[in-house]
Design a protein that fits this description.
The protein is of the alpha+beta class. It is built from 11 helices and 17 strands. It comes from Gardnerella vaginalis JCP8108.
Length: 379
């Protein structure tokens, strides 16, 4: 991972670093590089890591020693078979020392939390049901975190909070229309109660991390999440694009029709008012129209909204996460058809749209990865 000195970096590099970098960043980048080859459940020797990473034996030895001392990695026996020389000691991610507390605020009328180990396995859960989504607040989040910490048997590496909205680099929620939050410094509030690092992220970025590491994610993609609202996350060469204002991917508040329905952001006719999971479920349950027609129309709206971004960045992979009764064949094919109709003709590498392969824990697991990434940099 590259460490930049600017206060608001536009790119947040993932742990999918696959090449050596400049000397000034070598230690951190090499830690990320080694962790990436072992995460979540790969087992490799030091010699194997040398071959895969192209780092020197000395570099591998030094970095692995540090990561063993930090309980990020653990030695797990020896190679079973080797052609010549002595058997190498095997390494894997240490799943038994650290736990991470993750919170997902993206679900309607619910605060979800989990205790997760360094391999992304959920060990414990806790949640609080809400009368309405806007009832979510710091006090309830703190309550869920305390319950989870009390149920954890290991050391706490950090707490990660995934929020549907714009989050700055200091952990402040600049704006969340769906939660009706504005300039809420959730990190500052949690630090008063917990003696561990607090990480706050955009929920769709967290979900994208899980898709990249546990699904069929590729280094260049646009990830769409239909949940409480509509969010997007853009991955270019394994780097999440965040933007100067940390608002890259706020596709839900693109205006589709200036005369359309009122949106929670204060505008009219935002994409979110047409295709959010809540909106589509309401239409499907109350309208006389066929569900297939409603979903085909929603997919067309999404495809049109995505066309400019896809064309500018030359993306060919669109991943959509949402309820299975919404993100189905009808919705996906309608989205893909709109992209092909309104985008440039590209017979060699056409853009494909697919359903996310991860389950409903995608945001909790993705936020775990975000915390790991942050802590590997700073341990």
């Amino acid at each position: 991972m590259s460490i930049k000195t600017i206060s608001k970096p536009m790119i947040n590099q993932l742990m999918t670093v696959s090449q050596k970098t400049i000397p000034a960043d070598a230690r951190i980048n090499n830690r990320m590089l080694i962790f990436n080859y072992l995460f979540p459940k790969q087992i490799l020797s030091r010699a194997m890591l040398v071959r895969k990473t192209k780092l020197s034996k000395a570099s591998i030895s030094t970095v692995v020693y540090e990561m063993l001392e930090d309980h990020i990695l653990v030695e797990s026996g020896q190679e079973s078979k080797i052609e010549r020389g002595k058997k190498g000691t095997l390494l894997e991610v240490d799943a038994n020392y650290w736990n991470i507390i993750t919170i997902d605020l993206s679900q309607p009328c619910l605060i979800q939390g989990a205790v997760v180990n360094l391999c992304g396995d959920i060990l414990k859960r806790s949640e609080i049901s809400l009368y309405k989504s806007t009832d979510a607040n710091c006090e309830k989040i703190i309550e869920v975190c305390k319950t989870l910490i009390n149920n954890s048997n290991n050391h706490i590496l950090g707490i990660g909070i995934a929020v549907p909205g714009i989050v700055d680099n200091e952990g402040k929620v600049v704006r969340s229309s769906n939660l009706q939050w504005e300039n809420i410094n959730i990190k500052e509030e949690l630090i008063k109660h917990f003696n561990c690092p607090i990480i706050v992220d955009h929920d769709t970025n967290s979900a994208l991390l899980a898709e990249r590491f546990f699904g069929n994610g590729v280094p260049n993609t646009i990830f769409i999440q239909l949940s409480l609202g509509v969010g997007a996350s853009i991955l270019i060469n394994d780097a999440i694009i965040t933007g100067i204002n940390n608002s890259a991917g706020e596709i839900g508040h693109i205006t589709v029709d200036p005369q359309g329905p009122d949106c929670s952001c204060g505008k009219k006719g935002c994409l979110e008012t047409y295709i959010s999971a809540e909106t589509l479920h309401r239409k499907m349950f109350t309208s006389n129209r066929k569900p297939e027609d409603i979903l085909a129309e929603a997919g067309n709206y999404l495809g049109k909204a995505l066309t400019t971004t896809i064309n500018l960045l030359d993306l060919t992979d669109v991943v959509i996460y949402g309820p299975s009764d919404i993100v189905n064949k009808v919705f996906i094919s309608s989205t893909e058809k709109a992209i092909q109709e309104y985008g440039p003709y590209s017979p060699k590498h056409p853009c494909t749209v697919r359903r996310c392969t991860c389950n409903n824990d995608i945001t909790l697991i993705g936020e775990c990865i975000s915390v790991i990434q942050n802590r590997i940099m700073h341990l």
